[in-house]
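Please decode residue identities from the backbone states below.
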């Protein structure tokens, strides 16, 4: 598992499958440092009550890596590495979407019950954001 986690940190994005401890009492997922997380988590935030037709994101990060987990409901993430765009439909709390640095993201199509939790490798820093798409293309070369 640790080798997989080291490898994932070199990828631009990847769906992670978490182990579910489930039985007739329900399900539990544990995310543990150095076990099934590819980076040290410095920040956790969550997003909810999102109007249906809103598009969020529209930026990339210079350093920050993240794992996106849709805890409830569903939404779509469109990831763009400057060459190709890929859409991920998130609707399963047992999966995480790893996003490395230098990936443009937009997310939308929120169900009314959508709750997104994000694990981040850095503290919040507006200087880490690339919010202009042309600048993003220039930076990634
Ligand atoms: C990302 C997607 C998935 C803070 O004060 N602290 C924080 O940790 C964050 C993430 C945001 N903010 C403030 C900054 C803005 O005034 O919250 C406001 C909304 O942030 P933003 O417009 O960046 O939110 P999203 O949903 O477009 O993007 C966020 C993350 O910023 C971003 O890194 O990948 O969620």
């Amino acid at each position: 598992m640790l080798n997989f986690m080291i490898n994932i940190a070199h990828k631009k994005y990847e769906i992670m499958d978490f182990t579910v401890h489930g039985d007739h009492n329900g399900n539990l997922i544990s995310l543990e440092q150095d076990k099934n997380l590819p980076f040290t988590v410095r920040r956790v935030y969550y997003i909810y009550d999102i109007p249906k037709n809103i598009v969020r994101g529209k930026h990339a990060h210079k350093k920050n890596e993240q794992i996106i987990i849709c805890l409830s409901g569903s939404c779509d993430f469109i990831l763009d590495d400057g060459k190709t765009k890929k859409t991920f439909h998130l609707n399963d709390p047992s999966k995480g979407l790893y996003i490395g640095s230098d990936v443009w993201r937009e997310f939308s199509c929120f169900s009314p019950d959508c709750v997104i939790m994000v694990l981040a490798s850095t503290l919040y820093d507006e200087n880490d954001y690339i919010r202009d798409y042309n600048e993003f293309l220039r930076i990634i070369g």
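Observation: Residues 56 and 107 are 5 Å apart (CA to CA).
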